Amino acid sequence: MHYDVIVIGAGSMGMAAGYFLSKSGKSTVLIDSFNPPHNKGSHHGETRIIRHAYGEGENYVPLALKAQELWNDLEKVSGKQLFLPTGVINVGYEKTDFIQNIISSSKTYSLPLEILDSIEVNKRWPGINLPNNYIGCYEPTSGVLKCEECIEAYRELAEQNGATIITNSKVIEIMVHDDKRVTIKTEDHTFSANALVVSAGAWSGSLLSMLDLNLPLNPIRKTFAWFDTKDDLYDHKEFPAFSFETSHGHYYGFPSIDGSGLKLGRHDGGDTIDPDEAILGFGELEEDTTDLKQFLQHYMPFAQELKFGKTCMYTMTPDEDFIIDTHPNYPNVAIASGFSGHGFKFSSVVGQILSDLIISGKTEHNISPFSINRF
Ligand SMILES: Cc1cc2nc3c(=O)[nH]c(=O)nc-3n(C[C@H](O)[C@H](O)[C@H](O)COP(=O)(O)OP(=O)(O)OC[C@H]3O[C@@H](n4cnc5c(N)ncnc54)[C@H](O)[C@@H]3O)c2cc1C
């Protein structure tokens, strides 16, 4: 069967790309090793934070704002609530790049941001116990995305637009013949198309090496867990999502949503893994629990017993910026990978960018920081 576009990997980025491509009238097939959304890649665990004033750098802000607009559109079109406006508090030492980037982003782009000292933070959210050398930057307009539901919504709409989604089929071979024809193989089938999107998350490195592209992508094991709470302190109607850059590490988390418990993960650290091998489960390494408990003891002492935890994968680049580009030798191959543990919030706009790159070879969004040739 011949299509306009094949998308390899129908996860966060790929499913959004499939939606935008099919909406533009392109005949699109999305192929995934599993049945997205699923719990084998980087997009499970119920929730993802979306921040607008961006600690990782001001150049992300226009994309974050566009992504938010597209999430709002997706809510309207799908009729589902995908975004919870919990607000997000970013905590750290005032002089760090992370905090300074947040403050300068809010000034440059006139984003609402409340800068609070530790006494104000502790008073406003009694579930937090912040030592007096930290500050909190509270963004009232950002919040939480229901990640699997976002992917489901894009999937349903892409299918309504006529996209074909092939599940439980791993792509094992890619051939680009010229700038108008590609062929890919799964174990059972061969598909051809004019163009290709590679959005295979932690598996992108091995797939792209079939196209003579060896990118510095490093898949790592990550863990996160839910803790019982006194819900009046940590309920999402009162308590924000959070990102804490502390002397004990960089942690992020979510309020208790409908009694789920407080969800917490550590952003820095993690061991390199092979995504094709079995990954150690949550709790199989001692630090899986000790890190999180130590954070809670110091900063959120009223969260209680560990309920359960999970593992997931980040795909790191050396500078922790994304890769969104076309293949240097094949303009009909668009690539999105290396989201370094902060990509989900952008997946709506990344889907639109991938569709732009396939349809016209360019995009109005500034993706120059994410180019392949920076390596
Ligand atoms: C624990 C955790 C917490 C996070 N928190 C946040 C957060 O709060 N905010 C935020 O913005 N981001 C966050 N992230 C990061 C974000 O979730 C990722 O950056 C994003 O999901 C990456 O999307 P992706 O499309 O690259 O990968 P995925 O969503 O994993 O999609 C890749 C897809 O490719 C498929 N695939 C791979 N190889 C093949 C093949 N050979 N053939 C066919 N299909 C294939 C896979 O099955 C998968 O479905 C977090 C990540 C983790 C793990």
From TrEMBL:
Q: Which regions form coiled coils? A: none
Q: Which UniProt keywords apply?
A: FAD, Flavoprotein, Oxidoreductase
**Gene Ontology MF term list:** N-methyl-L-amino-acid oxidase activity
**Cofactor(s) the protein needs:** FAD
Q: SUPFAM superfamilies, from UniProt? A: FAD-linked reductases, C-terminal domain (SSF54373), FAD/NAD(P)-binding domain (SSF51905)
> Sorted alphabetically, which InterPro entries does this protein's record hold?
FAD-dep_OxRdtase (IPR006076), FAD/NAD-bd_sf (IPR036188), MTOX (IPR045170)
Name all FAD dependent oxidoreductase domain ranges.
4-357
EC number, UniProt record: 1.5.3.2
Query: What's its top-level EC category?
Result: oxidoreductase
Q: Which Pfam families match?
A: DAO
Endpoints of the signal sequence? none
Matching entries from PANTHER family are given as: FAD DEPENDENT OXIDOREDUCTASE DOMAIN-CONTAINING PROTEIN (PTHR10961:SF7), PEROXISOMAL SARCOSINE OXIDASE (PTHR10961)
Q: Name it.
A: N-methyl-L-tryptophan oxidase
Q: Which species is this UniProt entry from?
A: Paenibacillus taichungensis
